[in-house]
Design goal:
The chain has 304 residues and is mainly α. Helix content is 62%, strand content 6%.
Length: 304
């Protein structure tokens, strides 16, 4: 869970306890001038996906490796910090560029050559854009068959339900939160789909170019597209009471059906724990910052 001032990650260790890590967010990214500049502030979502997302996964892996019980308050191992974490970020970024930028551009170039004179620049860019969209949806759908990813999608659903319950003013217990919907208009999945759709429109306006220049242009324009996508999501999320806005955002909500699963009560307890830690930080309560925190969530688990 990420608030405006803190990030909190909650996972279960092999013994079934909920382990929590809470740290303040970098004020230069989330609280400074950048966070208040329209279109520029959308870059924070890219950092959420790459920086905070991978850091959270590494923390989860550290906890999973701690198979031996530890005393309460003892931090998990840090096998995935330092060079290992930097290497994972570099590998993930490289694979993302290859799969969602280089491959669509290469395939679109091959399609243009096959079509010959029938291929105009707009057609080539549209082919590339729809290939990128197909790859995104296909990738999300395919990995959803993996047991570990299914469970991850369940935690994603638990996150959405917890936020929906809080925004509705409901009690934050697993049984109460379970009643709320899986979809949320400010989801990162919605951001990804919006980025791809906007990229199709923006890239279609570009002139013809070679493969290398085409790939470079996609990477250079990605921050611009991310900024536009963020403002679109911000605008539509604040106007969900408008029928036209709800219609426009239906594809975003529909795609979330691929990245969420109905969570069990244990997953909801973990999501609630992470959210309550963020909420405590936002309200100025004392929490341990910038360190791994081992915490047995007795109160939350009692709600099961």
């Amino acid at each position: 869970m990420r608030g405006s001032k803190a990030l909190s990650v909650a996972v279960r260790n092999p013994q079934g306890d909920i382990i929590v890590h809470t740290e303040p967010l970098d004020a230069r990214i989330y609280g400074g001038k950048v966070a208040r500049v329209p279109f520029v502030r959308g870059l924070t979502l890219l950092w959420d996906a790459l920086g905070l997302g991978i850091k959270s996964l590494m923390f989860s892996a550290d906890v999973a490796l701690d198979e031996e019980p530890k005393e309460q308050g003892a931090p998990p191992s840090k096998a995935f910090e330092g060079p290992a974490q930097a290497g994972m970020i570099a590998l993930s970024l490289s694979l993302m560029i290859l799969l969602f930028f280089v491959l669509p551009a290469f395939l679109a170039g091959a399609a243009e050559r096959w079509l010959g004179t029938a291929a105009t620049p707009i057609i080539g860019h549209l082919i590339e854009g729809f290939m990128r969209l197909a790859l995104l949806i296909g990738y999300i759908w395919t990995i959803g068959f993996m047991p570990d990813v299914k469970r991850l999608y369940g935690y994603h659903g638990a996150e959405h339900k917890t936020i929906n319950a809080y925004e509705a003013g409901a009690e934050l217990t697993p049984k109460s939160v379970a009643r709320f919907p899986l979809e949320h208009p400010r989801c990162g999945t919605a951001f990804l789909l919006t980025v791809v759709v906007i990229s199709i429109i923006l890239y279609s306006l570009l002139p013809p170019m070679g493969l290398g220049v085409r790939i470079l242009s996609r990477l250079v324009l990605l921050p611009v597209i991310a900024g536009i996508a963020y403002e679109f999501l911000r605008f539509t999320a604040a106007r969900q009471d408008n029928a036209l806005i709800r219609l426009i955002t239906k594809p975003n909500l529909a795609l979330q059906r691929l990245t969420t699963r109905e969570p069990d009560l244990g997953m909801l307890a973990v999501a609630i724990t992470a959210f309550e830690q963020v909420l405590a930080f936002e309200r100025g309560a004392e929490v341990v910052e910038s360190t791994h925190v081992a915490q047995r969530a007795v109160v939350v688990e009692a709600g099961l």
